[in-house]
Amino acid sequence: MSSFFTDLAHQYIDGEWKTGSGSWDIIDFNPYNGEKLASITVATADEVDQAYRAAERAQREWAETNPYTRRGVFERALRIIEDREEEISEAIVAELGGTRLKAAFELHLTKEFLREAVHLALRAEGRILPSPEDGKENRVYRVPVGVVGVISPFNFPFLLSIKSVAPALALGNAVVLKPHQNAPVLGGSLVAKVFEDAGLPAGLLNVVITDIAEIGDALIEHPVPSLISFTGSDRVGRHVATVCASHFKRSILELGGNSALIVLDDADIDYAVDAAVFSRFVHQGQVCMAANRILVDRSVEAEFTEKFVAKAASLKAGDPAEPGTHIGPLINSSQADAVSAVVEQAVAAGATALLHGRAEGNVVTPSVLTGLPADSPVLGQEIFGPVALLLPFDGEDEAVRIANDTPYGLSGAVHTADIERGVRVAKRVRTGMIHVNDGTVHDEAIVPFGGEKSSGVGRLNGEATVDVFTTQKWISVQHGRSRFPF
């Protein structure tokens, strides 16, 4: 496995694997055992410029390439991932601390998004619109936006890089990708290797492994890209949006969440417990769609709480490489310390810990908190770790009020025996996505994905992806003669 990472510990610019020329290295660690996987010298602002200029040159010809030819790249990329699935799964365990279950989940979705990219290559359809002017034909073309900058996160880096990179390329754009420094291989150089092996022409996908400490805002301020696709925290997303707006660039922002899973009084309690435990603790809670808050009708609170705490306590924490592990490490020690601090602060402020997690290295076992004061700061924030907040409510109106009492609006769920009741409640929760009688963690390649409020701007997947990575161009044709007033 070590050679897997060291072989990919490079920048990828204009079809060449290069060593960065920065003055320091990003060290890629295994978050479970601290093993050094690779050392990557950071790219400089000059190398970011080289990447964007290469993308700009390559994109013009790519946009004119027959979309059926473009489609073949994604068919080959899919086969490459299928052939290397076990190796990539091992890398997810090593670089991210992902469990076997998480690795399978990420790879399944990655393949689904590549299958959709195959079809997206043919989906940039134009239109002919009528005109009030005699003899005039209005043609509306869907054309690529040009060059796209993609910034991906550490939690599902292979999936979330490809989720933007593949459709952008399929629709005729070129891409410069910057992965998170905690996932430089899975989020960056592995993506480049897959597409290189799939026959993508040089220059169309460039990967710069670097950090804001080295390049500042060069990646988003650069004059070449017309769109930045960012997935990450709302704090950084706000900065990206501000810089993009000041440079007249478009941005698509997939940000954090504080989702509520609502258990109504007629819910199937055992099923709701299963959905809530998965929605809160999958990948150690490092999921933007995770159920931070679990809202339970007071009439079923005692039964739900007893079963939820018992199931959370039964989750096996430890080595993610072991098949039976449910809870692996958080991505780094800073994250582990931050999550532990959230629990201690909440308890100090009056919360009751029905299950009090403990940290061993970067592995933090589940915590379940209840009795939180209404003004507790933890209720309004995203907790990127295995901490569940149980909140009782009396009736649907209070459930909706609590669910909406957050700056975020990404995902959610409602559990009830009455489907249409669940839909009525779901419609009242201000969130981009919400699921009746299911978990909060879902992503499907053809369904619009995105949030409201501080959870992001815009949508990805399916037709929404075409809207993001193309722009409309109006060309009118006058078949007769126009009459001018002078």
Shape: globular
How would you classify the helix and strand content by structural class? alpha/beta
Determine Rg (CA atoms, Å): 24 Å
CA(first)-CA(last) distance: 75 Å
Count every beta strand, where a strand is a DSSP E run of 2 or more residues: 24
Which bin fits the share of residues in helices? 25-40%
Put simply, the count of helices is 16
Report mean pLDDT, rounded to a whole number.
97
Strand order of the largest sheet: 14-17-18-13-12-20-21
For the sheet with most strands, the description reads:
7 strands, mixed
Regions with pLDDT < 50 over 5+ consecutive residues?
none
Which percent band covers the strand fraction? 15-25%
Structure description:
The protein is of the alpha/beta class and 486 residues long. The protein has 16 helices and 24 strands. Helices cover 40% and strands 21% of the residues. The strands form seven sheets. A seven-stranded mixed beta sheet has the order 14-17-18-13-12-20-21, sandwiched between helices. Strands 9-8-7-10-11-23 form a six-stranded mixed beta sheet, with helices on both faces. The longest helix has 21 residues.
List the helices and strands and how they pair.
Layout: H1 2-7, E1 11-13, E2 16-18, E3 25-29, E4 36-41, H2 45-64, H3 67-83, H4 85-96, H5 100-120, E5 127-129, E6 136-144, E7 147-151, H6 157-170, E8 174-178, H7 185-197, E9 205-207, H8 212-215, H9 218-221, E10 227-231, H10 234-246, E11 250-254, E12 260-263, H11 269-281, E13 293-297, H12 301-314, H13 333-348, E14 352-355, E15 359-360, E16 363-364, E17 367-370, E18 387-393, H14 396-404, E19 408-409, E20 412-415, H15 419-428, E21 435-436, E22 452-453, E23 456-457, H16 462-469, E24 470-478
Parallel strand pairs: 7-8, 7-10, 8-9, 10-11, 12-13, 12-20, 13-18, 17-18, 20-21
Antiparallel strand pairs: 1-2, 3-4, 5-6, 6-24, 11-23, 14-17, 15-16, 19-22
Helix pairs in contact: 3-5, 4-5, 5-6, 6-7, 11-12
